[in-house]
């Protein structure tokens, strides 16, 4: 039996504790995982088993949510992050990474964090969760994949202004993105010969230069050159024709050029069940594709679907490696 999945608690004033309890109740022993955090932050009716090691979680999760406990500085108030808890949120992530790197956990799933709370309370020096994980793993470059049963898509550039995309999008960046995506599809998704479709940057993929020349100047030549490196690539495609059902059947993952070009189609197709996957790490990492949702925290109405899918995908990926 494989090791259980480590679920870091994320921001305790958000919906993370609530959806962790709901995900456990839905999955139970079908997808063994343990939660790293302060058990006092979980909903009061959550059946909890405090564990000392991840190996204890596999047996415990049938009847209780296994918790590897960390005592936080203060009680969590829904919707009101406490800066003094920030060092312990970070500690939970670091502990989870340690366990997955040693093989005590088969994969890492992360609940959403709140960057401002981490900056205010712990001087957090990273743009986000993914960059922190890359630093802990000693990796300079990772990529974000959004995945569901209907689509896998990777944005080459992520959280930058649209005006900055043409400058940030370089041949080196796109090549790295393709290479990391292909390796992830092979090694973590078990796809021996991944097919990757690449979007153009401009409307209609430039329409022969009438709407931009990046496609003809360097994107198409790069894809052609990489075909000789045993990559199965197509494109650059007009983004507005890449995401209907017949098009999606022709590739295993799509690479988009910027954030909204990637996230609009997957959130339209499968808003509640999309999963954030980090490729390029030396371990499996998934996360629900949403934030802390302070506005509904503590109300008992948070939808756990994305976290459930993130845990299930982490399990499938672990079984494929």
Automatic annotation (TrEMBL):
It is found in: Cytoplasm. InterPro entries: PdxA, PdxA_fam. Its EC number is 1.1.1.262. Pfam families: PdxA. One of its GO terms (cellular component) is cytoplasm. One of its GO terms (molecular function) is zinc ion binding. GO terms for biological process: pyridoxal phosphate biosynthetic process; pyridoxine biosynthetic process. Keywords: Cobalt, Cytoplasm, Magnesium, Metal-binding, NAD, NADP, Oxidoreductase, Pyridoxine biosynthesis, Zinc. Gene3D superfamilies: Isopropylmalate Dehydrogenase. Homodimer. PANTHER family: 4-HYDROXYTHREONINE-4-PHOSPHATE DEHYDROGENASE, D-THREONATE 4-PHOSPHATE DEHYDROGENASE. This is 4-hydroxythreonine-4-phosphate dehydrogenase. The gene is pdxA.
């Amino acid at each position: 039996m494989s090791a259980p999945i480590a679920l870091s608690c994320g921001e305790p004033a958000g919906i993370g504790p609530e959806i962790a309890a709901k995900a456990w109740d839905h999955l139970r022993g079908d997808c063994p995982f343990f939660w790293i955090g302060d058990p006092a932050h979980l909903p009061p009716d959550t059946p909890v088993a405090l564990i000392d090691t991840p190996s204890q979680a596999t047996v415990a999760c049938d009847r209780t949510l296994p918790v590897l406990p960390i005592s936080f500085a203060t009680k969590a108030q829904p919707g009101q992050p406490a800066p003094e808890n920030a060092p312990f949120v970070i500690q939970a992530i670091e502990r989870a990474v340690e366990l997955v790197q040693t093989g005590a956990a088969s994969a890492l799933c992360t609940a959403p964090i709140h960057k401002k709370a981490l900056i205010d309370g712990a001087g957090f020096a990273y743009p986000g969760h993914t960059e922190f994980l890359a630093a802990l793993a000693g990796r300079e470059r990772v990529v974000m994949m959004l995945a569901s049963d209907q689509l896998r898509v990777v944005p080459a550039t992520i959280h930058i202004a649209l005006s900055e995309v043409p400058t940030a999008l370089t041949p080196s960046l796109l090549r790295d993105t393709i290479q990391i995506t292909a390796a992830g599809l092979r090694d973590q998704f078990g796809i021996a010969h991944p097919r990757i479709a690449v979007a153009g940057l401009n409307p209609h993929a430039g329409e022969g230069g009438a709407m931009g020349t990046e496609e003809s100047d360097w994107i198409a030549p790069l894809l052609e050159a990489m075909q000789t490196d045993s990559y199965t690539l197509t494109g650059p495609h007009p983004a507005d024709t890449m995401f209907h059902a017949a098009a999606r059947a022709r590739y295993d993952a799509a690479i988009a050029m910027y954030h909204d070009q990637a996230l609009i189609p997957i959130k339209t197709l499968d808003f509640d069940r999309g999963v954030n996957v980090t490729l390029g790490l030396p371990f499996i990492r998934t996360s629900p594709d949403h934030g802390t949702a302070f506005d509904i925290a503590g109300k008992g109405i948070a939808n756990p679907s994305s976290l459930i899918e993130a845990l299930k995908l982490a399990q499938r990926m672990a079984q494929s490696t």
